[in-house]
Amino acid sequence: MPTTEILPSVEQVSKALECWIKNNNLNNSYIGSHTAQKNTEEEILDYSKIPTSMAIVLRKKEVTGIVYNKKTRDIHVYTKRKVYQKELDTEVLTRFYSCALIYATGQINEIGKKIDNAQVASSKIITSQTNTQVYTCGSSISPGSDRSAGTLGALVKDSNGTLYGLTNNHVTGLSNHSEKGLPILAPGVLDVTPISTKPFTIGFHHATLSMNIGTSDNIDTTTNTDAALFLIDNPDAVSSNQQDQFDTPVTVCDPLPGSVVEKVGRTTGHTVGVIIGRVLGTIAITYSVSQYDFSGLVFFDDIWVIHSADESSFSAGGDSGSLIVQTNEDGTKSAVGLLFAGGSDSSSKSGDRTFFIPISSILEKFQVSLVGGHNVPKESSDEQS
């Protein structure tokens, strides 16, 4: 009886490829910052058969990151300059330990530098089942002191039942610069116009999770998370509904590569995409806050990537803070992440990609849970009952 070959995991293959890249000086200094440290304590797959010609080609391209997909066994290798087809045909591996290697160019956008104009209504007020007008999740918010706009991702509550809004640190926390109690405005200051929703104080800045500048040489980058809470001023004025699309699911699950996901955000509204994989090791993102003349590089661990399901972007500047919702195999929805960054990607239909942080770790660190069924439209209330 023939024996079945046991293949190494796609993560093992990705780490071996990364070690080869680092040992051949093919990457910029930020890639795989602490992954390399972890790898000193584990066995790395043999990569000696990777041809020298591949190193010569990739040295000119500069590798900027690796994303791996456990389900499809695809490994996306991101480079600063394009790997051409003739190079793929003759000099560069397209398979490694039965994993497909997909080469793409892609950069990561600086956070805080540019917020795109809203492509749809930046905020949504709905009529709840009690016939009151309420402001929805997926809508525009900002600190009252800053001409910016991001997205209210979800409503959450602590063990005492106190209601908070969940978004990114860089949205309402101004990347660690907001003082506790700073008023949070809805819509965000950038979206206030003569014809916009009348602005009001939706809440007050409450807390952020650790998000510190520095490399793994001087800080624990694995604790960095771009998330913030603000205390809801009037629970009767807000809804857990994601604009007029669907109610926030209260169940949480881990991201699954290949799963269909959706989000509702301030800039691009309701969009659908697919999780293509997890970033190997750390990802380096530049943050800036012009109001405080601040700019710094922050490293994150356990980051996931989404491609749009079609040629339109899954997200754009201003969608930061949006809740990422995954459709499960049984058709139900679960929250999986918080959108926080984006960038270009030549391998996606839309030419860009979205980065998100798993929601489970954020909720656990804040000691809060997602809220659903709060001031939702009557039809949503009927469906949940």
Short synopsis of the structure:
This protein is 14% helix and 34% strand. It has 385 residues and is α+β, with helices and mostly antiparallel strands.
Radius of gyration from the CA trace?
22 Å
Number of helices: 7
Summed up, the domain count is 3
* Residue fraction in strands: 25-35%
How would you sum up the global shape?
Answer: elongated
**Widest β-sheet, arrangement of strands:** 8-7-11-12-13-10-9-24
Which consecutive residue ranges, at least 5 long each, have pLDDT under 50? 381-385
Question: What is the assembly state of the chains in this entry?
Answer: single chain
Largest sheet: 8 strands, antiparallel
The residue fraction in helices comes out at 10-25%
The structure class reads: alpha+beta
**Average pLDDT:** 93
What is the number of strand segments? Answer: 24
**Distance N terminus to C terminus?**
55 Å
What features would you describe in this structure?
The longest helix is centred in the first third of the chain and has 14 residues, at 10-23. Helices cover 14% and strands 34% of the residues. The protein has three domains: 10-105, no CATH class; 125-245 and 372-384, no CATH class; 248-366, Thrombin, subunit H. Strand 5 and strand 6 form a beta hairpin. The chain contains seven helices and 24 strands. An eight-stranded antiparallel beta sheet has the order 8-7-11-12-13-10-9-24. The chain has a six-stranded antiparallel barrel with strand order 16-17-20-23-22-21. A four-stranded mixed beta sheet has the order 5-6-14-15, with no helix packed on it. Residues 381-385 have low confidence and may be disordered. The protein is elongated. It is of the alpha+beta class and 385 residues long. It has helices at 10-23, 35-39, 52-61, 85-90, 169-172, 359-366, 378-384; strands spanning 63-69, 74-79, 95-96, 99-105, 125-127, 133-137, 140-143, 150-151, 154-157, 163-167, 183-186, 200-208, 228-232, 238-242, 246-247, 260-265, 269-279, 283-289, 294-300, 304-308, 323-327, 333-344, 352-358, 369-370.
